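DM from R.C. (forwarded with permission)

"hey, sorry to bug you on a friday — could you get me a structure for this? deadline for the figure draft is monday and I only need the backbone to look sensible"
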Amino acid sequence: MKITSVKAIAVNIPFKTPYKWSVGAYTGITRVIIEVHTDEGISGYGESPSWESEEEINTFMAQRLIGMDPLDMEGCERACVPEMRVLANTDGNTPLKSFGGIEMALWDIKGKYFRLPLYMLLGGAARKKIPMCEYFSYRMLNKGGTDGGEATPLDVAKYCARMREEHGSTFFEGKCYTGDVKAEIKMVEEIRSALGEDAMIRLDGNMAWSMSSARELLKGLEPYNIRNFEDPVASFWDMKKLRMHSAIPFSTHNPDPALAFHLGVPDSFVVNLTVLGGLRKTLGFIHTCENLGLNVWCYSGDTGLATAGYLHVKAAVNHMHEPSQSLFRFMEFDIIEEGPFSPKNNFLDVPEGHGLGVNIHKKNLEYGHKLYKENGPMDQFYNEADPKKFIRLPIN
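My reply, with the result:
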């Protein structure tokens, strides 16, 4: 079997209404969908998290992969990615993220070739039902006035209560970023009251807090049984100082388990499979974390294609027992026929089809690409107060 073509397609998926976080308003996601075709009629699909990957793949990597065996993932990687320890100091990690999406497509091909779901290629299922969190944040009101508009702590708590009522959700994670310590404590108090004592509540500060404000905030959150606080401050070193003032576990998107083990913080990593360079590198990262006593789960903001990859990895890896994040309720549409996914009673079933086990929604893929070509990447940093300037941290 030989690769005959590789194509990368950038797509925009707007949110029903933007949600707010520490550095602006998040209007939607831009992701790059990768198609890999073979001479045996088997095609695989993958996803890269960065719009820059479209050009990287189409102008450089695609031609280098023509004629290669898609089952030879190491060979394909060596054709596309220079030595990363050197490249990271010069040109950044776009090649790694780009190939990570290609590698996902190669796994999809491999599963279809052997007529097995991906989790079977990874060793079999430790679980078939995959835990997921609902997500909450302050949100703008959409133009029709039919969605969003959560502007107060009580509004956010009512949204969470609605998710529990409509979907059986009791796992929640959301933004805690405003710089107003009293208002954030009030929001968590309202959410805890609305959901009850047994619900899981995790928070994400996106590095918004100064050390003094973070100490005050975490002290005020102690009565509310917070499962985890992601990036309350800007660095592992600040987290180490903060640990002296709070027993709430910390997590981060910055994948440095050696430093975390050395400092004793953070307790967990929240990762994207392709940012790390693909499933093989992600599995190595997870096993390292397991040996060091660090938790791992997956973050949100991807299409159903990458989410399917998450589901298979979490099915196959016993250590990944914590629920992952999700933004499924916020998305206007998805580029897979099965999406947007909709967790019920906190869980999604792992797909049982061959490879990733999901099917591309061709019209939605074309529409998402049309939105990208017309508008450029979705804005993740829109500043309502001054659209011409980006926000700087800490907020308080």
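R.C.: lifesaver. The radius of gyration is 21 Å.
me: no worries. The chain has two domains: 3-116, 120-360.
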